[in-house]
Amino acid sequence: MKNSKSIIGIIVGIAIVALILALSVSSKNGADPTGASYTAVTGNETLGEVASVANKAYYGTNYVWIMITGFMVFFFQCGFAMVETGFCRGKNAAHTMTMNFMVFLVGAIGYFLVGFAIQFGGSGGAAGLGSGGSALDALLTIPGFGGIMGYKGFLLSSGGIYDAGIYALFFFQMVFMDTTVTIPTGSMAERVKYSAYIFIALFISMFLYPFFGNWMWGGGWLSTLGQNFGLGHGAVDFAGSAVVHAMGGMIALSGAIVLGPRIGKFKKDGTSRAFPGHDIPMAIIGTIILFFCWFAFNAGSTLNATDFRIAIVATNTMIAGAVGGLVAMFYMWVAYGKPDPSMTANGALAGLVAITAPCAFVNVVSAFFIGIVGGLFVCLAVPFVENKLKIDDPVGAISVHCVNGVWGIIALGLFADGTYGDGVNGISGGVKGLFYGDASQLAAQFIVVLVLIIWGFGVSYVFFKVLDKVWGLRVDPEAELEGLDIPEMGVLAYPDIQLVKNDLDFESEDDLPIKQLARFQKNKN
Fold first, then answer.
1. Which of 216, 437, 465, 523 reaches 20 to 30 Å from 178, CA-CA?
2. What one-character DSSP code corresponds to residue 140?
3. Structurally, how many domains does the chain consist of?
4. Cα(398)–Cα(401) distance, rounded to whole angstroms?
5. In this structure, what are the phi and psi dihedrals at residue 140, rounded to the nearest 5 degrees?
């Protein structure tokens, strides 16, 4: 009781002191609590001085815009980590969650060392971030074909690179790249080596992503298909359906194929078993985080706060994501009797992936249709990938990002309405798709899809095969069945909870043999 009285006495004393201070605060001595007197000019400036202040205000708003949206895109890592971990089993939670964090650490350094220079070393920078980007003037080109890689800005060094505009561009583009690095962790979850994924993250951030990113966004040959070959505005991808999502999805596809399915996923008769996720609420929260950050992902890609198209981009993003989730929910409800939470989440993500490329070039009715198709595609693709192709993708990354990334890049070639994009890739006039009179734009978009298959899937498949031979992609069967938290990470995600074992945690005579596990049998013999 005495202690309580003493605490109350101290609180009352602090309150009295605060009250006295509050009453004594004055706006004298030049203080201005309203901010009404704040001004950058006095009325005596020259026209040049006023123009200088306005110039700084223009660039200042652009810098604030690109940095804040970049911060939000970084938070994608949290969303992806929660979605993937929630869809996986509890015995692998620490492994899956940490892998999603690790890829940022590795990817950021790989992109800093090499990737940024390859992607943007010859891009000339971003106009809305000042003239410093002109230092990015080194693009290796093939005459008559176009650019293939930049070669200035390794380690953000060399002449003129120490520039605020270039650093801002690097920061924003780095978090985009890291989304691509994160996507394959979902299709390879629950059986991939943690150490192997370090090599994968380096390969993607330093080589695979930057080259394709250069061809699309860094002044490379795909972006100049319009100038060199008369195909629309060249390859166009406003915020990354192709560069980020389809590329990540193609890598996810090749990785899942080389890695093989989880033990017990397929029976000898070819049918699959469901592996329920351990925390659906976690996955739903992760989806909400991703949805929120997607507004920055797409609208931030204007790289310019004074581009009023931001409002169109954000609204199109909202509508496509919302209707994608709604379509997936009702599809599962009608087809299977229940509104599957996981597929509702993946439907929303599918709609968001699909609208990412065309979001600035289409009207909201087109965005609505694109989202409907995205939500339907993911519901059809998940069972097709699993039951027809016999590929084990624990979180649906292939169906969400690969399938709908491709759909997004094609949708742009169909629905771009010509109201935006004047000057994109050096071509005058707005970007128009097939339905608005320019079939050549759709042709350019199909070339992007072909390159994604050859470069994104083909090259990553070869890399995974080599890495599997040299280092090994997959954990041993005992570790997989036990759960990867202790064997791979040395800690349990849930040390105070007794995880319940079921038939899926043990081998069965009815399991389809997995060829990727043959090496472990040989080692035992």
1. 465
2. E
3. 1
4. 6
5. -80, 125
